[in-house]
Every structure is written in structure tokens, then in C-alpha cells.
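Fold in C-alpha cells:
===
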Amino acid sequence: MTKKPFIVFGLVLVFLAVLIPLWAFTTDGDPAKGRMEVPENLKKGQTLFDTNCGTCHKMAQAASLGVQGPDLDAAFASAREVGMDGDTIEGIVKAQVENPRPSPEGYPGVSMPANIVEGNDLEDVAAYVAAYAGVPGAKPPKAPGVGPGAQVYANNGCGSCHTFAAAESAGQLGPNLDDVIPAMSQAEIKESIIDPNAQKAKGYENQVMPDRFDSIPPDQLNQLIEFLTKYAAGSKSGS
């Protein structure tokens, strides 16, 4: 008779041990809202997405605004509403990457290249998209704690195109900011943001940077410039 309360208490502890991590992941600890530590495979998946996918696909959590491919939030939001789970979304992403829809006749560059990521990289990208695409309230994760400019960088999707170590971004479409920023004045950096095609970086003459960044509020633009100049690799102000 005296053992029963201890058995019940033990079952309660087991239940809480399972419930609390799930609660942390799905409520205030929702990684889609940047409020908890993100698993390593999702961190890697985001980096791979930024490098390979964000230039063509829009997705709020990645702060990517690509228009060549489908808006992934729009594509999966309705599916989530009717009960599609993350495993199913992950499977769809894998299938689309491995066997993308053929290009329309006469437009060979419109279709996504087959196997743009493969193996474990594909697993991580699919898990990342499945975790965040179409999730209500998803937004860019909290940036590394190196000042408010880092969050401006994240919120505007700079990492989708640029590598910058301080922001933990690895985009490849545009110049590596750790390489080019140390040689630029703040005025040049500002011009490259608000009028990006006025003077293009060597080797990137054929790339088109969006011109939407002239809408960044002045205080945030100044924070972004300060962040870039202070933390670019090789920058005297960051040493």
C-alpha cells in the first residue's frame, strides 16, 4: 500500500520529463520565434539554405526574399493548417530537391537544379524547411550578441547572399564581406547598401543585389554599417 504513491509520483516525473521539452519547443521556446537554442542540424540546414536556396525562395525565418522559386511559407502554411506534419513536409522537400519540376520550354534557368544539396546536407536542409516554412509567427532567429546591427543584418536576409563570420552567415551569391568591408569607408558601405548596383564588387559584375534596402530606417542602417565595419575580419575597429 505504501508503494503506490511512490509509483504514481515516479510516473508523474517521467511524464513531466517528456512534456517539458516539448512545451519548450512549441510555445515560448519555439525556435521559429528565436526563443530557444536551435539544434545543430537546423543551424547547419539554415546555413545551407542561405547558400543554396534563399536567393530563389522566400522564407520568413531565413529572412530570404527570393522570387525565382515558390514562396515556401505560402506553399506550406495551408498544408500545416490541414494537419500536414513536419515529417511529411521534410519528405516533400527532399523529393523536390532530388527531382525538381522540369524547366518550361525555352527557359532552362527557371527550374531548380537537381540535387543542389545531397546526402546529409539534404537531410539538414529538409529538416530546416520542415521546422520553419509556413509556421505562424516565424521570424529570423536572434542574432549573435554583438550589437543591434547584427539583428538588422539578420532581419534583412543579408546572410542569404553574403559570408560574414560575425553573423555566422555563409551566403555565396555576393562578395564575402569579411574580405571586402575592411577596405571600404562607411560612406562606401552605405552606398553599397542603398544603391547596390552603382558600383559592383570585382568578380560580381553580373550579380544583381536587390535595391530594396534603401527602405531600412536610418538608425538601423547606421547600426548595420557599424556592425559591418567593427566586426569584418581584418578590420582595425574589430580588433
Notes: The domain at 148-238 is CATH 1.10.760.10 (Cytochrome Bc1 Complex; Chain D, domain 2). The chain has two domains: 40-140, 148-238. The two ends are 69 Å apart (CA to CA).
